[in-house]
């Protein structure tokens, strides 16, 4: 999504927690990877960040993500990315950015950590809060499960389709 933003925030975290690592999962364009490598070198964190590149299957991606303590998924354009829902469904606390839709995931309960787009300090603070507060991480895991169940389970979706169908019929 926005690996460059994740790297900037991670660099802040890594100053305080030098043993932390960042694993960037997924494919990338060669030119973009070169830019990221140059930035990693300038920040002095090249050895702390690894890239998986494209993985053979979606299951391989999910298995890689499941190794994470939390997911850093900043968004520049998306409303709510599927990667956020996947991390939430896999019990991985999420650090992301505020878009027109991401705050909806916290409407009923705090389910994800949010910061403004481009606010690397805010994103880093959210990451450090998860490192320091295991209870918060556990709370986010539980809340994310409930939020997904409320918003995306098959029963809820079927009811939304049902209600929408009859709404259309009423206005014909």
In summary, what is this structure?
This protein is mainly α and 172 residues long. The protein has helices spanning 3-16, 30-43, 58-65, 82-89, 120-132, 134-152, 154-170; strands spanning 22-25, 49-53, 71-72, 94-97, 113-115.
Describe this structure in words.
The structure is a single chain. With 172 residues, the protein is mostly helical. The protein has helices spanning 3-16, 30-43, 58-65, 82-89, 120-132, 134-152, 154-170; strands at residues 22-25, 49-53, 71-72, 94-97, 113-115. Helix 2 (30-43) links the parallel strand 1 (22-25) and strand 2. The termini are far apart. The mean pLDDT is 93.
Q: Which assembly state applies to the chains in this document?
A: single chain
Major sheet size, sense and barrel closure: 3 strands, parallel
Low-pLDDT parts are none
Helix content: 40-55%
Number of DSSP strand runs: 5
Number of helices: 7
* Largest sheet: spatial strand order: 3-4-5
């Amino acid at each position: 999504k926005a690996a460059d933003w994740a790297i900037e925030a991670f660099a802040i975290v890594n100053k305080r927690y030098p043993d932390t690592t960042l694993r960037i999962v997924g494919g990338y364009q060669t030119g973009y990877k070169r830019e990221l490598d140059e930035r990693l070198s300038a920040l002095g964190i090249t050895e702390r960040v690894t890239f998986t590149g494209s993985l053979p299957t979606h299951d391989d991606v999910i298995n890689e993500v499941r190794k994470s303590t939390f997911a850093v998924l900043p968004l520049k354009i998306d409303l709510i990315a599927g990667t956020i829902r996947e991390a939430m469904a896999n019990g991985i606390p999420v650090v992301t950015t505020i878009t027109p839709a991401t705050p909806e995931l916290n409407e009923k309960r705090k389910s994800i950590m949010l910061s403004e787009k481009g606010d690397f300090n805010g994103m880093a603070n959210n990451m450090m809060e998860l490192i320091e507060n295991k209870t918060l991480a556990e709370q986010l895991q539980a809340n994310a499960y409930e939020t997904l169940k409320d918003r995306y389970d098959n029963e809820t979706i079927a009811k939304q389709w049902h209600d929408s169908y009859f709404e259309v019929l009423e206005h014909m």
